Structures are given as structure tokens and as C-alpha cells.
Amino acid sequence: MRIAELIKILRPKVKYRGLPPHQNLWCGGLPDFEAGGISCNSKEVGENFIFVAIKGNRQDGNKFIEEAVARGARVIVHSPRSLVHSPQSIVHSPQSPPLNHWRAGTVHSKKACFVAVKDTRKALAQLAASFYGNPSAKIKVVGITGTNGKTTITYLLEAILKQAGLQPAVIGTINYRFADKVTPSKNTTPGPVELQGLLCAMLKAGAQYALMEVSSHALHQQRTEGINFSSAIFTNLTQDHLDYHRTLENYFKSKLGLFKGLGRGAFAVLNNDDPYSAKIRKATQARLVTYAIGNKADVTARDIKFTSSQTEFTLSLGADKIKLKAPLIGEHNVYNILACAAWGLKEGLAPALIKSALEKFSSVPGRLEKIEAKGDFCVFVDYAHTEDALKNVISALKKISGRKIIVVFGCGGERDKGKRPKMGRAACGLADYAVITSDNPRSEDPLSIIADIKKGIKKNNYCVIPQRKEAIEKAISLAQAGDIVLVAGKGHENYQILKDRQIPFDDREAVRECLRSLNY
User: Fold this and answer.
1) Tens of pLDDT, residues 400-417
2) Which residues contact 186 (CB under 8 A, 6 or more apart)?
């Protein structure tokens, strides 16, 4: 795409005087050219790139402008407040000086021009969408947001769409996958340039739907700006990420942004048992479809029965009453199934097709994933890393076992400290015994994290073993016939983040090794 066309999309805050009309949103003195790429990372900049200087929580992109120009950036998009001089004095045009003074130093180049915009994050997302040809206008993008359940819902929707003979692609916490290509994910929702690139590649590969987990961080940082969502699903909202959002209300406002951005032609799927759905209902112009277990809704579940391998219930799907046997356990998974059934109903898929896909479904990696053991007890690995998720999973397991629940868990370092004692209270309050260990401590002292967890514990039914593999082995060694061991917190992850390095570690493999060493 030509650079002048890209720049017009931004509608820069500063219009440059003295330029011909066709160059009004372009910088004089530089010829138009084909954009080589877009980045907010100076180290990824190449020839003829646009560099967007974003001031983040840890790094200030304005400090890397010199490096970006040296690597080939010819357009610098910035906020006016990032400049020492007024915006009018920094344009590289015949009437202005060629050098521009920044807090980070002086850019010694006559090859770059500068474009001031009100919001650099929004600008990056808009540029990325245009650079890749606005792929979300040609593929149905489904956004899934909420504290828990996002990953499971993407897997269930993927199965339903495949059953319908359609081609879905997925962007989520575990991986990005389409056309038999699977890429491990770095973020639940990638940055806008990578995100638009993925959507473009998915579209070219023949995908008709893109199922996207949309995190609160992504919404707050406007990574999804420029994406035309055809529908969105809200799962639930409980405490998480308050290290970033500070308050639960701020956390919700970020989630709400997804639904505020839906057009009248889109639809929203809301959990009527979650009080935050009422606020979403008032804020969105999209068409609505609801699901619930306790309250009235368009899609509901009644007569729920749990076993160690499946859940049975009557699914009310519009006018249809369907007896369903799904190979997922726990009430939280009933909600996930209902959300997908409600989405399928609104999308116009046949109830019989939805039932067939749900009953054929196998499992989600690291979500109540059962590890086979020779003993008369069960071991499950789950991603639960919030108080609510831990409660849901332990409660689900208690309904299928008459004996003890032994849980292994910890809390991540450099994350919301407020949830640590709550997770301790939930684990020890609901489980029969807990082994408290390390999760991803990052730069924090594992023992300090564990001390925070212990502040919420009221019982004496736990022990502390900081080494995660030793903690897992301890829990398994305590298990007797009929017991359930739950290893919570990391799920599908195959690494552990320590203070100075990241090491290979997979709870599922650790469980298998411990079972072998204990002759199970």
C-alpha cells in the first residue's frame, strides 16, 4: 500500500500548511512510496517502514526513534505531547528545519517525516488493518471475552463450525491455528500488526470464521481497533489482572469496549447469570442472545448430572429441548457449552448439528485434562489461576467424587497480589488438602508469594513445597483409592518463568513422571 494512502487513514491532528491539496496529509520533501511495513518495535523496522512511537508501561517508543530511522523508517507516527517543540515546527517540509529535537536525542536524518496523532495505539491498529487490506471485512470475526472460559469456547465453536462443513481459524491462549497450521501463542490476543497479519493469512488460507480470545489487556491497549467483529461472547467477570487495571470496574470497562464497538448488524451472546451482562446490554447496539442456568434466557440447561467423564443435561435451544451428553465436566463447562449453543442458534446453525458437534467433542489441552493412572484415583491438570476458576474446578470435582480432593497450586509473580489470599482461602476451604507451591514466580521470591497465599487460609490442611515437581509428587503420594488430585494453575503451559530464566516444565509430563516413579 502507498504511504500517502496509509497516512490519510490516520487523519493526523496536525495538517501541514503550504503543501499542495493532494499532499495535505503527507509531508513535503519526500516522494510517495510503497510502505515496507509497520512496527512499534524499533528492532523490527526495515526499509520504508512506518514506526509508531508508543509510550508503554515499561518502554517509551519515543526513545527509539533514532534507531528506527537508522534501520529504514521513513515515517514516524507520534503523539504531539512527546515533542519538545510544537508540532508545526517538526514537519520535514520546505518551510521547516530538517532536524527535530526529541527527549531521546536528535534524529540526524532528512529521510524521515513525522505525523502527529492524538492516540498512537489507535493509529498503530488502524495502520495495520489498512496495510493488510482490512481482512475482518471479509472474514467473520467472533470475539470471546470474560475472566474464564474463553479458551474452551474457542475449541467448542471450532468443533461446531467444522461439523457444519465450515472453515474456522482460532487465535487464543494456547495457540493460533488454521489450515492445519499451528503456532504457539505468545499472547492471548497478539499485537495489532501481528493480529491483522494473522487474519490476512487466515483469509488467504480459506478461513470463513476467526474465533478470537479477546483479553482485557488487548482491549485497553486497542489491539483490536480496526477489527469488524461479527459477534461477541461474554462469559463472566471475576477478579483478575488488577495489577494492571487497578480496580474491578476498570477491568470491566476494558471488556465492555468489545461490545460497545459492535455494529447493529452484529450480535452479542450474554451470560444472564452474571450481573455484568445487564451493563453490557445497555451499552451495546448489537442484537442479543442470552444463556443461563439459574435465570431466564434464550438458551438454558436443566436437570444437570455430572460423572467423572461427562455431563448430561436438557438443553433448551430456542423452541427445541435437547438431551445432551457432553464429554466435559463441571458447571463452568455447562456455561461454556450454553454460550456456544446460543452463538450457534443466533448464527443460524441447526440444533441437531450443534448437539452432534458437542457430543463428539473430546477435550481442551490443560482444561480439566485427565491424566491416566493405574491407581484407583484420578489426576487432573487445569489452567485455573483465579479464585473463581479454582472454586469452579474444585466444586466440579467434588460432585463426582465421594472421597478426598487434593489440590496443588500456586500464584504467579508480578501479577495481581490481591487474589493470592483469596486463592488460598478457596483451595483450602473447598479441597480436603492443598500442597502450595510455585507457579511462575518471575522476579518475585516464591516464598514471599506463598506467604501472601497463606494469609487467606483459615484451616490447617496444607503443606508448602516450593519446588513444583516435588509438590506434585507429594500430592500423588497422598492419594488413595477414589481420591482426586488436581494440579492447578498452568494447564497447557510447557514452561516455568523464574527470576532469571524460563525453563521447560509441563504439569502433565511432571504428573506422568511422578506416576511412573511411584509405580502408578
Assistant:
1) 877 899 999 999 999 999
2) none
